[in-house]
């Protein structure tokens, strides 16, 4: 029969998980840095683009991630802003987790829903506008 974990054990597992994210992320980075281009060729063309002629919110994500893996942030932003925005949010959440692990918990990201609605609205606007400005086309 399985025993239930105590609150102390749960907290230690949570802290260990936070600390293990970084090495796992680095291994994933190394793998994708070397093999990402080969994997990108396996993805099908965008059906939405073929049917409508417009770019969907996901168009350019693969190229954006590959540009990020090679350290080219501006090119990554040109292809698609989602990986950069998501990577920034995840990085800040990881930093919050580290503050918790080391006993000085600080909230870095705003918890106000209005902030997130503004961020999502700006991203949505970007996904529309990029279909009409040649520089933003992935």
Structure at a glance:
67% of the residues lie in helices and 0% in strands. It is mainly alpha-helical and 138 residues long.
SSE arrangement:
Elements: H1 7-40, H2 47-52, H3 61-69, H4 73-79, H5 82-101, H6 113-129
Features of the shown structure:
67% helix; globular; 138 residues; mainly alpha; 6 helices
Based on secondary structure, the structural category is mainly alpha
> Helical element count?
6
Overall geometric form:
globular
Mean pLDDT rating: 85
The succession of helices and strands, N to C, reads: HHHHHH
Major sheet characteristics = none
Please describe what this structure looks like.
With 138 residues, the protein is mainly α. It is built from 6 helices and no strands. The N and C termini lie far apart (54 Å).
